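S.,

Sequence below, as promised.
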Amino acid sequence: MGLPWVSLTPVLSNLFMGPSSSQVLIYRRYVDDTFCLFNNKKDMLMFIDFITRHPRICLTMEREIDKKLLFLDIL
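The prediction came back faster than expected:
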């Protein structure tokens, strides 16, 4: 039998992300990888600033180059 709080992880994650989601056009997750699409650079920087305020969240970022993006080891 699993730990009782494990099933709450997605709910708590959504509650934490909720306030910042208005500036994200597309938000998709796969395990510990996340794909986000923003209207502009300002919205992206605001989102990153919000997320990185939590001391246990480590963020790395890939940007589009020549209209190509590496995500989940797929170009």
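The chain has two helices and two strands.

Coffee later?
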